[in-house]
Amino acid sequence: TEMYVDDGFRRRGCAQGMPSFMEGRLHSTYGVEEIHLLTGTTNHAARAAYEKAGFRAKNEVYMTKEVPGKR
User: Fold this and answer.
1) Residue 47 burial (C-beta neighbours within 10 Å; 0-12, 13-18, 19+)
2) What count of Cα atoms within 13 Å lies in the side-chain half-sphere of residue 53?
3) Considering the entire predicted model, what is its pTM?
């Protein structure tokens, strides 16, 4: 699932409530106790918003590989 703020609404504080809304909804609806997310290493605005919401970076690497001839 992707979560983002549309370009026309950025820099207005719209993203500040999104993590806590997501956290509350996932916990109350599904009993989720921990959330993992991915964002780009150069997406400084998103990283700052997530850190402000209590998320902490871990030393992990996301890896992918396209399988030749499987498309």
Assistant:
1) middle
2) 20
3) 0.68
